[in-house]
Amino acid sequence: MLRVASVPSSHVYVRHLAHPDALDVVSRLPDPVPVDGRTVPGGWWPPLMLESGWVTDHHHRFDLFHVHFGFDAVAPDVLGEVMHELKVHDKPLVYTVHDLRNPHHPERDAHDEQQDVLVAAAHTLITLTPGAAQAVSARWGRQAHVLPHPHVLDIARIERPRPASGQFVVAVHAKSVRANMDPLTVLDALVPVVAELSGAVLRLDVHDEVYQPGNHWYAPTLGAALRQYAKHPHVDVRVHPYYTDDELWDYLSSVSVSVLPYRFGTHSGWLEACFDLGTAVIAPSCGFYGEQRPCGVFDFTEETFDPESLHRAVRAAYDRWSGGTAAPRASWGQRRTERVRIAQAHRALYEGALA
Fold first, then answer.
1. Which end of the chain has the least Cβ crowding within 10 Å, N or C?
2. Structural domains in the chain?
3. pLDDT for 76-129, tens place per residue?
4. Number of helices followed by number of strands (H, E) in the chain
5. Distance separating alpha carbons of residues 184 and 204, to the nearest angstrom
6. Which of 318, 280, 320 is nearest to 297 (CA)?
7. pTM here?
8. What is the H or E stretch that residue 145 is in?
9. Are the CB atoms for 186 and 218 separated by under 8 Å?
């Protein structure tokens, strides 16, 4: 059995790197849980595997170290210490470059420094799209193997028919308005175009913690501005706690198109979930969302925004919907075949790194 210390291992992306029939020989260590119960905003705990000393104390339990994400708050010098421990104990590092720009960081400097440490130490690099691989090559002169994002939902959800709906719903989920989100700019552009579409509704969702004093995500001014969109008769504003997974899948299945209000970023698990469910996506031109799965794309970056490109994408989605053309959707057969290939590719890369 090939033992991998994965950072993290419980995330759905990482879980679905395993062969669906458990036919590979890869075993990923469970995420260590802090004994003091500490968490960071969002409810997850900081990865103990990236603390100084963890590798030294546990190197006998794993053969290879694989970093995905979760190092947001880990200082570059601490990452350097962890990389040194891996070298001392002859444990190769695989790093999957999910984010070339961290969606939670308003500035890119800290993430850049962290990635410089990880890329320099990594034996093998992986990323999700050809564009991201080209960016890795341009920045570090390294080759990254391109392996697609696996399915997010399970077979039952992927095969479940979408609920019947006679309404075209354009949805923006602002979540807790993380650093890369600019929902106001996107909503200001969507309000007039959705009003022009017969029977269409613009739905805005936002987490209630935006309105809770003392919460990390408390943003009263922004929260008040988001509520103001309810003054438009065709806009449905909903404030609620985090959805459970089932609630989130029900929500995505109930909307026609999900518009991603991201000024910066790289890849998206949300987009993959929409593909599993047959929900159309309109993604920004920043990052490489448009390379992940078939979707509409509008011009939206930290420096640019073309509202007409968003209008065109919405109208195109509406025309397909009104003409009876379903949004692109994964089948379980496609996703299963893809997952088998992903699992086999990871196993081969692990074996190559260990060799």
1. C
2. 2-151+335-354 (3.40.50.2000), 155-322 (3.40.50.2000)
3. 999 999 999 999 999 999 999 999 999 999 999 999 999 999 999 999 999 999
4. 13, 12
5. 11
6. 280
7. 0.95
8. strand 144-146
9. no
